[in-house]
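Handout, tutorial session.
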Amino acid sequence: MGYSSAGEARQARESLGKALEALQQESDVPEEVLVLTQHVAKSIGALFEAEYASTEPDGKTCVKNALGTLSQTLALLQDVKSDHAAVQSTTESIADVISVLFPLTTKPTLRPEGRSDPAPESTSSERSPSRRSPSQRSPSQRSPASAPPASAPPASGRPASVAPSSRPPPVASGSERPILLRPELRRSPSPGPVSGAPAEVPTSLLPPPAPIPVTERQRLEANLGATTQSNFYVGFSGEIAHGGVFVATYEALPKDTSVRMLVTLPGGFEFECDGYVRFVRDPMDFASESEPGMGIQFEGLPEKARELVMRFIRKRPPIFYDV
């Protein structure tokens, strides 16, 4: 039994191949854009593996890998300060491919015929802890990488960190089918001191308005590292200021809760920003393959904070969340 969505993976791979070829034939392409071609090539390789995957879980994993790399590329393109036509065309091509791949990551994994148990996507030792309730899990089963960096300032006076979980990092999913990128999408400029909604980006690609806080903002700490389940997320606009942080936890706050978040990064870097709980993944939803936790939408991202986020994204792809 091969991967059921091999045809879609092939379609996406061919589209990326054409975009990559066209980009390489352009003249005077900014160097920072040419550097991103390696990410596109990496995604093409992952999709090729998905086409010929022998099992459903293997194919789905390859698609998730490709989507993660493309989300990273889309975010990095937003940081390219150039009006070259190649930037626009490459951005649109990548967003179109993401719109094809994203639904594949939200499809339930098919069970092989003749089996009564789901086909595992990882070893039993990896999956068993992730399906337990919070009370059944020991501290040793939680991700040590989510701890604050050793070089960070003392933790006194900081908000309590949410409890991390230990399933492999998934691609975030939204409640609606992905929106096909419209031709009028334009690359959003770098935000000012506090980022807003760039006029060039269609309203349909922007996050919903932030709720008005009715009580004092909840204090929250998110620890991000190279292997933590928590990670930044972006949407179709590609601009990180329109995204946020997915916090892997079994102690999620209610949706629309206003928060004041401290984000700690490797190397002792950190920043604070306002946000709200945009989506929640129920830890008791055993039918879901997604990591339990909550997505914190940024409410304005200071320029210095954005620079830290972009530095992190260059090393680790963000996850994708449908607007």
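The second record follows below. Compare its token runs with those of the first.
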Amino acid sequence: MSDYDYDLFTIGAGSGGVRASRMSAAHGARVAVAEERYMGGTCVNVGCIPKKLFAYAGHYAEDFEDAHGFGWTAGKPSFDWPTLVANKDKEIARLNGIYERLLTGAGVTVFKSRARVVDAHTVEIEGRRLSARHILVATGGWPVVPNIPGKDLAITSNEAFHLARLPKRVVVVGGGYIALEFASIFRGLGVDTVLSYRGDCLLKVFDSDLGTFLGAEMAKKGVRICLRSHIVSIERRGDNLVCGLSDGATIETDAVMYATGRNPNTTGLGLERAGVDLAANGAVIVDDRFQTNVASVHAIGDVIHKVQLTPVALAEGMVVADRLFGQGRRTLDYRHVATAVFSQPNVGTVGLSEAQARHEYADIVIYKSTFTALKHRLSGRNELTLMKLVVDKATDRVLGVHMVGAEAGEIIQGFAVALTCGATKAQLDATIGIHPTAAEELVTMREPVAG
């Protein structure tokens, strides 16, 4: 008989926490999960799922316009923001229920309360203390707004999903995933949108061609992009917000949304008192097995501030469950993690950027193609698609695949499998493409670019 109340106590019922808990229970462990906010965490409630639903909504205006070139005529379309929000909320509620049933169906005890770590084997919840052989921290992250005058007037992605009304004008601050996605969403829904970013290039962690190309395409769609610029103050003047910029200029708007980063959600969790080492930003420091310096405490997902993607958190959860209660054979390689940005147009990427490849390999070859998708030959839209391959010249192995264009995420997913299997450029060349598709371009590029 165990001396502990539970074999595993998980704090946080997001994607990673739920997966680790469910799989641990399947191995026969006695598991409990505590969640103080909402089942499914960031992804389900204020992240991937509602964001993708909003991205679909933001694309319909162009779809209606594009239809004219194909012979369709319809009345002037109209958009109702409350309908979108209400329908999104129904879907989120459905998913909340599914996540809870996944846990209870696996025999996991669920606490809908805040838990706090007391020591290496103890958590405090609902006024009592429970013991656990292992504690798993999976509390995710939280948006950060810089400490500037008027910061309380700004919103983040958390609030953007629940706005009572759609603003007529918005300033989105940031140059990463969330900023570009929401700038595209707002513009697609007819909002006068400004994107303000203090850096020189959007999507700075990706291949540099992607951010440059995407910025140009978003500008075509009416997003005003201000690089090397940042807001130093926000002031309310009547019904308007006035943003003071670093160069002395001002922007008048109805809403300011910050998407400049997320910090690990560890404040007040008790980890420091339990002796767990944290990084300066609050991230839980773990080894490659997701174990902290306190042997019984583990952490996964956004709270460790590594690769902040839902599928990565799921994979990390599987590693922990297998290591603690299974065969312990699972490992995780971050090198070929594919990802997508659901901007307009989409971005998809897997593997090394050109800059990373040049740093790691003696000689690389770049293949690149920019073209107009067949659809837009009739729609008349001036949107372009970019595809790029990064190849190691010595081995012919494909190191990176990058794309900006419609359904980039759907296309890149398959190439992520290819890279994981060690595909070479010769193997791509030997693959017969599906015609007519945009994806076939990735297996028909034959001439490398100069340099």
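Points raised in discussion: The first strand starts at residue 6 and ends at 11.
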